[in-house]
Design goal:
This protein is α/β, with parallel strands linked by helices. It has two domains: about 100 residues, Aspartate Aminotransferase, domain 1 (Alpha-Beta Complex), CATH 3.90.1150.10; about 200 residues, Type I PLP-dependent aspartate aminotransferase-like (Major domain) (Aspartate Aminotransferase, domain 2), CATH 3.40.640.10. It contains ten helices and 13 strands. It has a five-stranded mixed beta sheet. The longest helix has 24 residues. The structure holds pyridoxal-5'-phosphate (PLP). The site of pyridoxal-5'-phosphate (PLP) has 14 residues, from helix 3. One of its GO terms (molecular function) is pyridoxal phosphate binding. Its cofactor is pyridoxal 5'-phosphate. It comes from Pseudolactococcus laudensis.
Length: about 350
């Protein structure tokens, strides 16, 4: 019998998670380095007895540590089960207008999926021919909110803070969500805008810059007004979204920020070296402020190179037949040794 009420939706397609130990896995922008020593210590010494209890509803230990580190107040922070959780809650909490929400046509694929899932009207604004966000497209437009990843993904391109501010300033009647998943790899955070604007909501994650993708912790930073709205939605849905182990380990990660500054600087250096090597092979490489590069191969189609690399146990991301992206591969930055091996394997194709 035909059933009523079943939802049909095209889900977000995440990068594959192959389990082969020998492979070079540079397809989902995970950190090239292990979690910090303090995180591993916190895991080893975690007292399992406490798991009998629910986790802390307010997550004050983690929020206080983040507040101290970021120079904001506790009531400006919400934590969640990865930044995907925080972003989904932000869409539910802040984007309830009848006007279309604006985001770039090439950006984090989940934005469109959430807009569909939550039945939020949206408009995808084309990037320029250089894959840049065009500031004026977001100014003097009637809209129900704006979502921008900065640096953008999967382009890797960072948008100058003064231009982000212009967008925020011109849209003070709606919320502007700024996804800073990659901000630790070279960009400049929009955090200072919080002092002047209460319509900015910034999201961050421990997945990329803190090498904790498997732990699932992310957070949002905004005015106390926005945080109280999103907290009410969170508590209407899944109040205990950050478990006790996750909170303890994420707190340890914030305490170890100096370790992360060091390894992330190393990743940025490797990225610049790798980009130069690809360019020397004639590849186009977009200027990246992240731990990945978007590149258009020369002398071989993107899809063929993707398949060739996979045959050599090197996993990168190919987005398939998706308009402008179909000529490009997104390659996460692994260790210097891994990236040297990738250059060697690609170079061998052309001798
Ligand atoms: C990885 C990523 C996220 C999601 O991160 P999680 O915290 O692992 O859910 C959000 N936005 C962008 C742009 C990302 O690349």
């Amino acid at each position: 019998m035909k059933m009523k009420g079943l939802r049909q939706i095209k889900p977000y397609v995440a990068g594959a998670q192959p389990q082969d130990k020998k492979m070079i896995k540079i397809n989902t922008n995970e950190n090239a380095f292990p979690p910090s020593p303090g995180v591993l210590q916190a895991l080893a010494s975690f007292d399992g007895q406490v798991l009998r209890r629910y986790s802390a509803l307010e997550n004050n230990a983690l929020r206080d540590k983040l507040a101290e580190n970021l120079g904001v107040n506790r009531d400006q922070i919400i934590v969640g089960n990865g930044s995907d959780d925080i972003l989904a809650l932000a869409f539910l909490s802040f984007l309830n207008s009848d006007d279309a929400v604006l985001f770039p046509d090439i950006t984090y694929g989940f934005y469109k999926v959430w807009a569909d899932l939550f039945r939020i009207p949206f408009e995808e604004v084309p990037l320029s021919d250089e894959f840049e966000i065009v500031t004026t497209d977001y100014i003097n437009s009637i809209n129900g909110g704006i979502v921008i990843a900065n640096p953008n993904a999967p382009t890797g391109i960072f948008k100058d803070l003064s231009e982000v501010e212009a967008i925020v300033a011109a849209n003070q009647d709606v919320v502007v969500i700024i996804d800073e998943a990659y901000i630790a790899f070279g960009g400049e955070s929009a955090l200072p805008l919080l002092e002047q604007y209460d319509n900015v909501f910034i999201t961050r994650t421990f997945s990329k810059d803190a090498a904790l993708a498997g732990l699932r912790v992310g957070y949002g930073i905004g005015s106390p007004k926005l945080i109280s709205v999103i907290n009410a939605v969170k508590n209407s849905y899944n109040p205990y979204s950050v478990d006790l182990i996750a909170e303890a380990l994420a707190t340890a990660a914030v305490e170890d920020y100096q370790y992360y500054e060091r390894v992330n600087a190393e990743i940025s250096e490797t990225r610049d070296w790798f980009s130069a090597e690809l360019r020397a092979l004639g590849f186009e490489v977009l200027p990246s402020a992240t731990n990945f590069v978007l590149t258009k191969p020369a002398g071989i189609a993107a899809e063929s190179l993707f398949e060739f690399l996979q045959s050599k146990q090197i996993y990168v991301r190919y987005f398939g037949d998706k308009g402008r992206l179909s000529d490009y591969l997104r390659i996460s930055i692994g260790t210097q040794d891994e990236m040297a091996k990738v250059i060697q394997v690609i170079g061998d194709l052309f001798v």
